[in-house]
Write a structure and sequence with these properties.
Shape of chain B: globular
Distance between the termini of chain A: 35 Å
Strand order of the largest sheet of chain A: 14-13-10-11-12-15-16
Number of helices of chain B: 10
Oligomer: heterodimer
Strand content of chain A: 15-25%
Helix content of chain A: 25-40%
Structural class of chain B: alpha/beta
Structural class of chain A: alpha/beta
Largest sheet of chain B: 10 strands, mixed
Number of strands of chain B: 17
Strand content of chain B: 25-35%
Helix content of chain B: 10-25%
Order of helices and strands of chain B: EEEHEEHEHEHHEEHEHEHEHEEEEEH
Chain lengths: 1090, 392
């Protein structure tokens, strides 16, 4: 069937901010959907609150609403836009849940929003979503088609759950209904755990329902990515096998594609079952993911779940095979059938086929437990990873070793790892029980522990018995360990064949260097001297059965006469290095910049070559750049592919300043290899990051920074802190995302910190800055060409200086900075860019205290705020910067420095709910996973939208709890009065209450937690308190108020821990009460569209 | 690729096998399975699963199979996943060495199984390069040789490859067909019980064995047919003696035109009786020849488990398992025959039916094994024709 002509406009809901379980894969799929549907001639209306996405670039949709994704707001957008249909399958669980609500009739019996507006759901109907998401309906559907599920029961109370235990037994899995990424679920091994997790799960479930389920822990886990069209044609795009067996969330599991340990008979049973599931659930069109568990002893197959939408796995499957699931699914949703669509990669065959691959794909998740003190690094059925790397090799060994070195965790392969409780110098044989105990813990490093256990002499049977990793994978790892031993014993290979063998097994030069005791450069030189270099193969969906004109490539080592398919062109080319796996501090914002660089340089006539290993991203879409290398971002991998590209054409240079810290770290080695780097000279980065050099520079150009010093010992640190004065901000040098940064109030805190930080930063010194209390922090993004400088955006932080800039809400334009201060900031930024010789992007963080401007930090590279600034101002600064780096002048772009007439507020989103027991207090170490933007005509409304987008629902009535430290009390008086005027009640702890009463305000009193029951936490749990303002200081007060913050988090009560945040919240409440929030497309705000 | 002349006779260290193509290309590797050498047409198969079924598919007679998926052997070998007792393929070419088996149904290492079945193989070569070569230049003749001592006479191996006549004009069905008539009642594999037995037969089918895969017979049995399997050379009387409700023409190896010299007249006469006839693969080609059409050799053939085929009557796409190097020329079909299925990869013919008789066939493998089961409906279609004929 051709596409539907009865519809003209389509609304797509995005996934909102990046959170654990919902990352930039939905930007990849959503952007594909927008592009595909626009190409088909439909009017596309997009809703997404996340400004760091490519999909919210104003040209991707006809009408782009950067508005909160809540049913109310989306309903308003639908009323305004009146689209014919709504496509809810591209924006993860967020979009699906929102669509469900919009299509559910009102409790009063009134028709649903979609019914009322006559909008049809396409891609997945309401019944389908319900059947797939509702545990009971799903189970019944599976019974109906004869697919067995683990034994289970749905419960709504803890008592029901206890009764169910007789049926399912322990251990048991607890899965709350309608939550994302397994939030609130877990595995219980005993009764007490069971009741605890059930209780948490009931709370986490929006419908207060959990499924308790028979444990299939240790079974093999598989996923199938299925696509179906309206003519009932079904294809399997990819099978995925989890190396981590059942018990670890698939998002947290190491996985391989295709499935490697199934015979065809078993595979076909799973294939049939997957298709039967889609038919039974009723997914008419689009992509779905179906998960199975298989008993390794008997082959018994049970179905675990299905997702009737594109997902993280479908992004992985798309990247793994070259089959663009989201793009195809979007077209299927408007009526096409698979055979009517082309296979983009071969361009001569249709999309109605099953990709076949001739390589092995490995995905390894990336975790950031170290960011959350108190969180145990254990993997369960609730997802905790914040990103992932994917790698491709011609064998599992090559693939998995490439994946390990893609992680950006310092691994060069199967590096040795310390086994807890084992003395590393102990004589062999070791105590096997200690090793077994380590293997039994499902930690992020378990794969390395497996290799270590093999080194320590445990048998593969033993390791299998504990980990349940398939024997096949264990045997492969054992071979690698054995090869390592040989290198350790006998050194590097003597001939090309020996080299080729090791490289085919995936060993990096860096790992071989460690094993043989050489420098990496020496190993690389020797390898090249032996004539052993990688070849580049194409990802072509068809195992080379058809020619592929699409240069989507990966490296592999073949025997000495292997064939290279890179086939470089004779064009002028630029290589763009991406950011690697997402982690806190380095996420989608950098991918946005890389993608913009690719777009801009293509417009400028260059051939663009992207390198990245993150399967979730838009940058790794083969459509984004002219050529794509899916490769680890290590010096070896990058230099080899650049050498291959240099065989023909003219390599203009490499862009390293857009992908965050990852590519920057490679700059030195790339330059040493004689490869040109575009833009700001590398030395400028060192100049900006080397404290002493930077201080001299600032002195030379007459700019100030807070008093500071560098300490290499505790004594030095104490002396410096004494001179600059407490509180001080301490951090190790060369870090991103404020890792290990801390505000220290006294000498004891300093001593505690030094012990910790020196270990973190190795040989690097510790930096000590005076902490400017109550200063306003300001972020500035600028673009420069070495001569001229354009200040693109000045962002005033809502939280004061000291909270990591990535975690702080901020507003553009500033709302409290005087004109003169802003002018001074522009002047200083310009001076800095010129002094550093910036060619491209630069970010500066300032602190403003009592009208004085201090420089906190300068980064001559793309920053996290670049997409926000671009969206807020309509100036595509990443694109302009890329073109300047390639030789154009800033003057060519005719930019004006005017701030926009509207206000954009950025708010951060945090994963605290995933980490029970972790304090939610913000500090200099970044903890947020994502961000939203609120856009409106004034600050109050924009802030209200940002809060709503971040999942914080500000109350319009009720009681506000206030407990503030002494020096903030005076500043709260106006706010308290305004709240009372708006009809709120006030509740305060004694000190605050005394003060406010003294100012003539009516305040209720409540106990602090330490003062005895009933206390404020009780009032919060009981639902009395609707909003919390709590500022604290000093280690003890912070500990004391922790239960309060936790209660706010768990009960979803908005809470603000700074004066500035509280003030913004009051503004926002006033704005909301003054009239409902209106919605408007981004395009209507922007003077120019980029 | 290097040629025999470049490589004098000194293999790189560790080499225990070599693939020599007729044009003199020499590819060194490590030996697998049995020692010795095997000559045949080098083809590639893109399936990611089912290597044991592929190696035992009689249609691979005369062929050396290069697997595009790098890891072959990971699930070992078992006695169930076989399509015939004696593999007909000549040899195999792999990217990676065979690993220890990892599957609950595995009973032995694939390398042991290869040795036991006298199959010669080579591993450690860039199979993707070979695939691209076949794609661009057609399937070459070649010899795979395995010698644990690493001694090879390359010139002799090249001569052997050059002297091999190629599949065009070669009748291989005669080599792989059963010598004797046999009755088949094993039904399809089920995950819980393995293979079963047909309990309540409804139809009698005679299957002419040009190199039949067992799973075709199992599918027929599962559909309710008692199957009498007769040799490729069976006469009309040999078939009709069993009083069948329908006749099945099996898959098989080689050039249909060569096999057709004795098979076509028989099939033509069977069609003339008005009995329902169903053909698969070589059976499809022989039926087409019998109806007056032509076949021709393909450039590289279709071998894999991901081939999309469109049913022209319903518009539905099925993902099919395929293995053929010859194809029916649709323009040569007579007026009373219509194409029913077409390949969405290259537009070649994938099925026909007679407009006035209960006769149809497909080029691909609805029995799968290995591959998707999307096309199992064709067995029901055959049953329906037999039912209709019974009522008529």
């Amino acid at each position: 069937m051709p596409k539907r002509t009865d519809i003209e406009s389509i609304c797509i809901i995005g996934a909102g901010p990046i959170i654990i379980g919902q990352a930039c894969e939905f930007d990849y799929s959503g952007a594909q959907a927008c592009k595909a549907l626009k190409e088909e001639g439909y009017r596309v209306i997009l809703v997404n609150s996340n400004p760091a996405t490519i999909m919210t670039d104003p040209q991707l949709a006809d009408s782009t609403y950067i508005e909160p994704i809540t049913p109310d707001v989306v309903a308003r957008i639908l009323e305004q836009e009146r689209p014919d249909v709504l496509l809810p399958t591209m924006g993860g669980q967020t979009a699906l849940n929102t669509a469900m609500t919009l299509d559910t009739p009102e409790p009063t019996g009134e028709e649903s929003v979609l019914q009322r507006l006559g909008i049809e759901l396409i891609g997945a109907r309401r019944e389908v979503i319900a059947k797939a998401e509702d545990r009971l309906l799903f189970r019944e559907a599976m019974d109906a088609i004869g697919l067995s599920s683990p034994k289970s029961r749905l419960v709504h109370t803890v008592d029901e759950a206890v009764d169910a235990l007789d049926h399912i037994g322990l251990p048991a899995i607890i899965r709350p209904s309608f939550t994302l990424g397994g939030t609130g679920g877990g595995i219980a091994y005993n009764r007490q755990e069971y009741e605890e997790i059930v209780r948490g799960g009931l709370r986490a479930s929006p419908v207060r329902e959990v499924l308790v389920e028979e444990s299939v822990l240790g079974w093999k886990e598989y996923e199938m990515e299925v696509v179906r069209d309206c003519a009932d044609n079904c294809i399997i795009v990819c099978s995925i096998e989890n190396v981590d067996p059942m018990g670890v969330h698939t998002g947290d599991s190491i996985t391989v594609a295709p499935a490697l340990t199934l015979t065809d008979k078993e595979y076909q049973v799973m294939r049939n079952a997957s298709i039967a599931v889609l038919r039974e659930i009723g997914v008419d069109t689009g992509g779905s993911n179906v998960q199975f568990a298989v008993d390794p002893a008997t082959g018994r197959l049970v179905i675990i779940e299905m997702n009737p939408r594109v997902s993280r796995s479908s992004a992985l499957a798309s990247k793994a095979t070259g089959f663009p699931i989201a793009k195809v699914a979007a077209r299927l949703a408007v009526g096409y059938t698979l055979d009517e669509l082309d296979n983009d990669i071969t361009r001569i065959t249709p999309a109605s086929f099953e990709p076949t691959i001739d390589y092995v794909v490995t995905k390894i998740p990336r975790f950031t437990f170290e960011k959350f003190a108190g969180a145990e690094p254990l993997l369960t059925t609730s997802m905790k990873s914040v990103g992932e790397a994917m790698s491709i090799g011609r064998s599992f060994q090559e693939s998995v070793q490439k994946a390990l070195r893609s992680m950006e965790t310092g691994l060069t392969g199967f590096n040795e790892i310390e086994i807890p409780g084992l003395n590393p110098d102990a004589e062999m044989p070791v105590e096997p029980d200690t090793v077994r105990a380590a293997l039994a813990r499902p930690t992020p490093e378990r794969l390395l522990v497996v290799a270590q256990a093999i080194r320590l002499g445990l048998s593969l049977d033993d390791i299998h018995a504990v980990t349940r990793y398939d024997h096949w994978f264990l045997a492969q790892i054992a071979e690698l360990v054995e090869a390592e031993e040989t290198v350790r014993r006998t050194g590097l290979p003597a001939d090309p064949n020996g080299w080729s063998r090791l490289k085919r097994m995936g060993f990096s030069d860096a790992r071989l260097a460690e094993l043989a005791g050489f420098e990496e450069e020496a190993v690389a030189a020797e390898r090249r001297a032996q004539g052993v270099t990688p070849v580049y193969k194409r990802i072509d969906t068809c195992a080379a059965e058809f020619p592929s004109p699409t240069p989507y490539m990966y490296s592999a080592y073949e025997d000495l006469d292997g064939e290279c398919e890179s086939d470089p062109t004779d064009r002028a080319k630029v290589v763009i290095l991406g950011g690697g796996p997402n982690r806190i501090g380095q996420g989608i914002e950098f991918d946005y910049c890389c993608v913009h660089a690719a777009y801009a340089l293509a417009e400028a006539g260059f051939e663009t070559i992207m390198v990245n290993c993150n399967p979730e991203t838009v940058s790794t879409d083969y459509d984004t750049s002219h050529r794509l290398y899916f490769e680890p971002l290590t010096a070896e991998d990058v230099i080899e592919l650049i050498r291959a590209e240099q065989r023909r054409g003219d390599l203009k240079g490499v862009i390293v300043q857009f992908g965050g810290q990852t590519p920057l770290k490679l700059a030195e080695q790339i330059e040493a290899a004689g490869i040109p780097i575009l833009g700001t000279p590398r030395d400028a980065i060192d100049l900006a990051e080397d404290r002493e050099r930077f201080r001299t520079l600032l002195q030379d150009i007459g700019l100030r920074q807070p008093a500071s010093g560098i300490a290499r010992s505790v004594e030095e640190a104490e002396a410096i802190a004494g001179t600059v004065g407490y509180p001080v901000l301490m951090r190790p040098s060369y870090v991103l995302g404020g890792r290990a940064m801390e505000i220290v109030h006294d000498v004891e805190g300093l001593r505690r910190y030094i012990g910790h930080a020196v270990r973190v930063s190795g040989r690097n010194p510790v930096l000590i800055d005076r902490y400017l209390q109550d200063a306003i922090e300001v972020d500035v993004d600028a673009v420069a060409d070495g001569r001229d400088v354009h200040v693109a955006g000045i962002m005033e932080h809502i939280e004061e200086a000291g909270i990591h800039s990535g975690d702080s809400a901020c507003t553009l334009p500033p709302y409290s900075l005087a004109e003169g201060v802003q002018e001074e900031i522009v002047r200083q930024t310009t001076l800095l860019a010129q002094a550093l010789g910036v060619i491209g992007l630069m970010n500066v963080q300032f602190a403003v205290k009592s009208g004085e401007v201090y420089i906190l930090e300068v980064n001559p590279r793309a920053s996290r705020t670049v997409p926000f600034v671009a969206k807020a101002t309509g100036t595509p600064i990443a694109k302009i910067a890329a073109r300047i780096m390639a030789g154009e002048r800033l003057a060519d772009f005719q930019l004006n420095g005017r701030a926009p007439a509207h206000t954009a507020v950025k708010e951060a989103v945090f994963p605290f709910a995933r980490f029970p027991g972790v304090d939610t207090l913000l500090g200099p170490e970044m903890k947020s996973t994502g961000e939203v933007m609120g856009l409106d005509q004034d600050f109050g409304r924009a802030f209200a939208k940002a809060q709503l987008g971040a999942g914080v629902s500000l109350p319009e009535s009720g009681t506000v709890f206030v407990s503030v430290r002494d020096r903030d009390k005076a500043m709260f008086v106006d706010m308290a009065r305004r709240l009372l005027d708006m009809g709120f009640g006030l509740l305060a702890t004694s000190g605050t209450a005394d003060y406010l009463e003294g100012q003539g305000l009516a305040v209720g009193r409540v106990n602090k937690v330490l003062e005895g029951k009933p206390d404020v936490v009780d009032a919060m749990i009981d639902g009395e308190v609707k909003l919390v303002f709590n500022t604290t200081e000093g280690a003890q007060a912070i500990v004391d108020s922790r239960s309060l913050r936790r209660a706010a988090l768990v009960n979803n009560i908005p809470y603000y821990t700074t004066v500035a945040g509280a003030r913004a919240a009051v503004e926002a409440i006033a704005a909301i009460k003054a009239g409902r929030l209106e919605v408007a497309p981004l395009q209507s705000y922007l003077r120019r569209v980029f | 690729m290097p040629t025999a002349n470049d490589h004098a006779a000194a293999p790189p260290p560790g080499t225990t096998a070599v693939l020599v193509l007729a044009d003199g290309t020499v590819i060194w590797g490590r030996g697998l399975g049995a020692s010795g050498s095997a000559v045949g047409e080098v083809c590639f198969n893109t399936s990611m699963t089912g290597y044991q079924e592929i190696l035992t598919d009689p249609s691979y007679a005369g062929q050396i199979i290069s697997f595009t998926f790098p890891h072959i052997g990971n699930v070992g070998a078992n006695p169930e996943d076989v399509e015939t007792t004696t593999p007909a393929a000549r040899g195999l070419v792999l990217r990676a060495d065979i690993t220890q088996p990892a599957n609950w149904r595995a009973t032995r290492h694939l390398d042991d199984w290869l040795k036991a079945n006298d199959l010669v193989g080579i591993a450690g070569i860039d199979t993707r390069r070979l695939t691209r070569r076949i794609r661009d230049g057609g399937a070459p003749s070649g010899v795979v040789a395995h010698d644990p001592g690493g001694r090879f006479d390359l010139a002799a191996l090249q001569r052997q490859a050059q002297d091999w006549p190629g599949l065009a004009g070669m009748d291989l069905a005669i080599e792989v067909t059963r010598r004797q008539t046999e009755t088949w009642d094993q039904t399809r594999w089920m995950p819980s019980d393995g293979y079963g037995r047909l309990e309540a037969p409804k139809f009698r089918v005679v299957a002419i064995d040009y190199g039949a895969k067992r799973n075709i017979l199992r599918c027929l049995a599962s559909a309710g047919c008692t199957v009498t399997v007769v040799p490729a050379t069976a006469t009309v009387e040999d078939v009709m003696r069993h009083d069948p409700h329908g006749v099945f023409l099996s898959n098989g190896p080689g050039d249909p035109a060569a096999t057709g010299r004795y098979a076509v007249p028989v099939v033509r006469d069977l069609v003339a009786t008005g009995i329902p006839v169903f053909g698969i693969c070589l059976g499809h080609q022989i039926l087409s020849l019998a109806l007056g059409a032509r076949t021709e050799k393909m450039h590289q053939g279709h071998r894999g488990a991901n081939h999309p085929v469109k049913d022209l009557a319903t518009g539905r796409v099925e993902i099919t398992s395929q293995n053929h190097g010859f194809v029916v020329v649709p323009e040569s079909l007579p007026p009373m025959v219509e194409p029913t299925h077409v390949s969405l990869f290259d537009g070649t013919n994938e099925g026909i039916r007679m407009k006035d008789r209960p006769v149809f066939s497909v080029q691909y493998h609805p029995e799968a094994s290995p591959g998707p089961m999307d096309s199992h409906y064709l067995f029901s279609r055959f049953i329906a024709l037999m039912e209709a004929a019974g009522q008529g």
